[in-house]
Amino acid sequence: MTSYSPRLNRLIEALRRLPGVGPKSAQRMAFHLLERDPQGAEFLRAALVDAAGIQRCPSCRMFCEDGKCPYCSGGRAATGQVCVVEGPADLVAIESSTPYRGRYFVLMGRLSPIDGIGPAELGLDALGAMLKGGAVRELIIATNPTVEGEATAYYLAEMARGAGVRVTRIAHGVPMGGELEYVDGGTLSHAFAGRTPA
């Protein structure tokens, strides 16, 4: 096993914490920053230090700065809609690809009892209070179509129904431009079951 200086080892280990980055990729990144892009390394260091000031919005749980959340404005609340997503990347995907401009609630995960993730870890007490507050007329569930995502969707739907709030679920199925013969059986079955009038 190759031995590096303690600081270089620490840099490589830090880079390995990024998703999809293995030991060789982390080593390549570290060497690139040190050999060819010291200004990039400094920029990365400053950005990471600055990112320590990012918090989570107490209402929607999305990342925000200085207590100002762009997803919790009065205009968004006026729609009476709250879209529940599993993570920040899901929120960004919806914002950039759809006309939806209501409020959000970011779970930062999904129910997974095996992994010790229950309602408390997802902040569902805060969502429950929001639903019972009377301002939410529709809960849009946009969890991923995985086993855990479906279980989470079921739990959320029961919460909303218990609070007298209308529940909708985003559609899942055949992608635009996709061909039926190449779609997996589970996706095709789900799409067929969720068909709508033409």
Brief write-up:
This protein is α/β, with parallel strands linked by helices and 198 residues long. It is built from 8 helices and 6 strands. The strands form 2 sheets. A 4-stranded parallel sheet has the order 4-3-5-6. Strands 1-2 form a two-stranded antiparallel sheet.
Structure, described:
The chain is α/β, with parallel strands linked by helices and 198 residues long. It has helices spanning 6-16, 23-35, 38-51, 74-77, 88-97, 124-132, 147-162, 185-193; strands at 55-56, 63-64, 81-85, 103-106, 138-142, 166-169. It folds into 2 domains: 6-51, RecR Domain 1 (Helicase, Ruva Protein, domain 3); 71-169, Dna Topoisomerase Vi A Subunit, Chain: A, domain 2 (3-Layer(aba) Sandwich). The radius of gyration is 21 Å and the shape is globular. The strands form 2 sheets. A 4-stranded parallel beta sheet has the order 4-3-5-6. Strands 1-2 form a two-stranded antiparallel ribbon. Strand 1 and strand 2 form a beta hairpin. Helices cover 43% and strands 11% of the residues. The termini are far apart.
